[in-house]
Design a protein that fits this description.
The structure holds two protein chains of two kinds. By secondary structure, chain A is α+β, with helices and mostly antiparallel strands. Chain A has 15 helices and twelve strands. Chain A has two domains: 172 residues, no CATH class; 168 residues, no CATH class. In chain A, α2 runs antiparallel to α11. Chain A is elongated. Chain B has two domains: 184 residues, no CATH class; 157 residues, no CATH class. In chain B, β2 and β3 form a beta hairpin. In chain B, 51% of the residues are buried. Classes of the chains: A alpha+beta, B alpha+beta. At the A-B interface, α2, α10 and α11 of A face α2, β4, β5, α7 and β13 of B.
């Protein structure tokens, strides 16, 4: 630490270079943190799934619907606490750009199954007692300024219907860009082929240990019928959506790797220039009796200090930006857009790694020069 | 009088590690930009090549995709005898088709994606070009047989030649693998439309494809069907139909490419500035000498800008070389219009390469501007006196 002051002086020697290098580090780290946060959110569905919940859909695909009557038989399976219809309506609010999820559910039992939904008791009662009622997530209120009592019309291209709902409550928890309404209400309005049909059932189990057996029991009830089911844990159901995206995640890891590598090059270039320009000084230090280790450590310390400052600025900058602007409002299915602790830690580790690896070769080479050679450098 | 270009090249080579590090940084930036754009381009080209120029596609009024469209048998009868529909051997060139989805795990994974199953009629292949059976044979009409696109068979489990898959209570056997000239249909499974109707107990179709007999008929057919109040259908040229899907599938990727590339470019630009400032500082005396020899300030400025452009150009070459092999890589993702897999190739096209080159050179140019101005502003005496 006694050389701390010397390292600091060295950094300030070429202020412009240090500033440009740190700026490079900061923007690159910001990008890495942003991409890593997107990666986190892409697997949010499976990571934060409720271990007690299952989803049942038609065995062939979500392109087929199931009769709502299956609900009663599913409820008789031992270990099942509650079953509700959970139907994707695909309703569009005014314009296709205003995309948000909307589901037809059993209003009375929604909160029993989606335990993460929070809303005041009067709002729940108002919703349950109004067949035309709907509840909206808090983020939808931020985006579209929905108010209690407001009439909202959603047009569904799937069902070829425009349906009007009345907002009866604002809920928090889960994906707060979701709207829920009564399956019973919509059931009277949809075309004949969709009557008494649902796209999925959401099922709550008594215990997590029951989940695999429940999934088998339910599916065996309907195998070889016109409506065979595929029942899986909510986690697996979420993963089935995540894998639809294909190689997107690997692709993003590839981009992060490319950015990290370019960071390494930027830093290595800066340190190589610093080392080269100070070759004669190294000769002087050696003549004064500085050991090879100390000289190498001075350069390594300098590199680590620069990357450390860059890391802190990048990390806090990203935190500041994402805390003040909630990008999840604008990205479908993203529940939040705040870098996780792991992401920030990873960004810091990457910075330290870059700081270390970028300087090792230069420091090793210059510190190993003889006094005469170093002093005789033409730089 | 400008400085000879050789001067620039020599200077880039003298500090080769520094020049190369900077060039590689620019190369990575250009490469990432190209890679994401090539992905978006792959989706776009797959979709835009899918529509046949003389085809009209008919969907239910208000539906956004084939998957949520319905056309009844009565409507079909009204459509095929419309004036303007081309005929072959007195048969209207029209095909009613049905779309549905099947969820299949990807190769080597337990989960996967939805694959489109298209029920096709006897006329379907006359209305589409590029179809080719590459293994096995075509399905027989009326049988529960299926043909699978080769790309889909390569990417998903249980869809190889001889495999069976189940729709409702009926098992379909894969009897052939096909290619479709890189079009969106290479993401599909094809079965007989009537067999699919009886399997799914649906008596409606998803869409109807019509061949217009000439250019005038192409427009008039679309208008005639869309405007007919009784039909409740909408018709549009098949080309337009697929072109409209492009933005939805690739728009996000293009935005990503620009966002990532812009931020990486800032990083690379700063690195380039560092390199150029060092280059200027190291050559202060040399610059003074050049000025004494009679080279003007703007010649010095241009020399340093050119030097940076040479480095950027090397970067562009690196970036392009890194991404060119992607042209042979096939991939797939979800097309949320149809809620199913779309398989396609990365496409690093000449115009994308040009765009990337301009982008890379712009980084080099902007990064060199301030250092070069600095070099041009040196006073001769000060420059010569420098250590």
């Amino acid at each position: 630490m006694k050389y701390g002051k010397l390292i600091l002086k060295n950094i300030l020697r070429n202020k412009r270079r240090t500033l440009l290098t740190i700026s490079s580090l900061v923007v690159s780290l910001f990008l890495i943190i942003t991409l890593a946060t997107i990666l986190t959110e892409l697997s949010r569905g499976s990571e934060s799934s409720n271990p007690l919940r299952l989803v049942s859909r038609h065995a062939v695909s979500l392109g087929f619907t199931l009769p709502v009557s299956l609900q009663q038989r599913m409820a008789t399976v031992p270990g099942v606490k509650a079953v509700i219809p959970f139907s994707w309506f695909g309703g569009i609010y005014i314009d296709e750009k205003n995309f948000f999820a909307n589901f037809a559910v059993d209003a009375a039992r929604l909160r029993d199954v989606l335990t993460e939904l929070k809303m005041s008791e009067p709002e729940w009662q108002a919703f349950i007692n109004d067949r035309q009622g709907a509840i909206v997530g808090a983020k939808l209120v931020k985006l579209y300024h929905f108010q209690i009592g407001q009439h909202i019309t959603l047009r569904s291209p799937i069902y070829d219907r425009s349906v009007e709902f009345i907002v009866r409550g604002v809920c928090t928890g889960g994906d707060e860009k979701t709207l829920f309404f009564h399956h019973e209400y919509i059931n009277e309005l949809v075309p004949a082929w969709a009557k008494d049909q649902v796209s999925t059932f959401s099922i709550l189990a008594n215990s997590a240990a029951d989940v695999p057996r429940i999934s088998q029991d339910i599916d065996s009830l309907f195998v070889n019928t016109d409506a065979p089911t595929k029942t899986e844990s909510e986690r697996d159901f979420a993963i089935s959506f995540e894998t639809m995206m294909g190689g997107v995640k690997q692709f993003m890891y590839g981009i992060i790797a490319a950015i990290t590598f370019s960071l390494l090059l930027i830093m290595a270039n800066t340190m190589a220039m610093n080392v080269r320009e100070r070759t004669r000084e190294v000769g002087l230090l050696k003549a004064l009796g500085f050991t090879r280790g100390t000289i190498a450590a001075l350069f390594i310390g300098e590199s680590l200090l620069v990357t450390g400052i860059g890391a802190l600025l990048g990390i806090f900058g990203a935190l500041l930006i994402f805390k003040s602007v909630d990008l999840s409002l604008y990205i479908p299915n993203f529940q939040s857009f705040v870098p996780s602790a792991q992401t920030l830690l990873a960004a810091f580790v990457i910075s330290v790694g870059v700081g270390l690896f970028s300087v090792i070769y230069s420091a090793y080479r210059v510190s190993g020069m003889t006094i005469a050679a170093a002093l005789g450098s033409t730089e | 009088m400008p400085l000879p270009l050789k001067y620039n090249f020599r200077n880039v080579i003298v500090r080769k590690s520094s020049s190369f590090a900077t060039a590689f940084t620019i190369g990575l930036t250009v490469g990432v930009f190209l890679m994401v754009m090539a992905l978006a381009r792959g989706i776009d080209l797959t979709l835009s090549s899918s529509g046949e120029p003389m085809n009209v596609i008919v969907l239910r009024e208000g539906s956004s995709a084939e998957l949520n469209s319905t056309v009844t048998k009565e409507q079909l009868n009204d459509l095929i005898y419309l004036d303007g529909v081309a005929r072959e051997n007195d048969q209207p060139l029209a095909a009613a088709e049905t779309l549905t989805l099947i969820y299949k795990p990807r190769k080597g994974m337990t989960q996967g994606s939805n694959v489109t199953i298209r029920g096709i009629g006897p006329m379907s292949n006359k209305l589409r070009s590029g179809y080719k059976t590459v293994e096995g044979r075509m399905f027989q009409p009326g049988m529960t047989e299926a043909i699978v696109s080769k790309r889909i068979a390569e990417r998903f489990q249980g869809l190889q030649l001889g495999d069976k898959f189940r729709i409702q209570t009926t098992d379909y056997t894969v009897v052939g693998l096909f290619e479709a000239g890189g079009k969106a249909f290479e993401s599909e499974i094809w079965v007989d439309v009537n067999s699919l109707a009886s399997t799914t107990k649906r008596d409606t179709y998803s869409s109807v494809l019509l061949r217009a007999k000439d250019d005038a008929a192409l427009a008039s057919l679309s208008k005639r069907i869309t405007d007919d109040q009784r039909l409740h259908l909408k018709a549009l040229p098949e080309r337009t139909f697929y072109e409209e899907q492009q933005g939805a599938a690739s728009g996000f990727l293009k935005a990503m490419a620009v966002f990532i590339a812009f931020i990486m470019a800032v990083g690379a630009g700063f690195a380039g500035m560092n390199t150029m400032y060092a280059s200027v500082a190291r050559r202060t005396k040399e610059i003074g000498t050049l000025r004494v020899l009679g080279f003007k300030r703007h010649s010095i400025l241009i020399a340093f800008v050119l030097e940076s452009l040479v480095i950027a150009l090397i970067g562009v070459v690196i970036g392009v070389l890194l991404t060119l092999p992607l042209n042979f890589v096939s991939t797939g993702t979800a097309n949320f219009q149809n809620f199913s897999e779309i398989a396609f190739n990365f496409r690093v096209t000449p115009d994308l390469i040009l765009m990337a080159a301009i982008f890379g050179l712009a980084i080099g140019f902007l990064g060199s501007l301030l250092p070069s101005i600095r070099a041009a502003r040196f006073k001769i005496v000060d420059a010569l006196r420098a250590a």
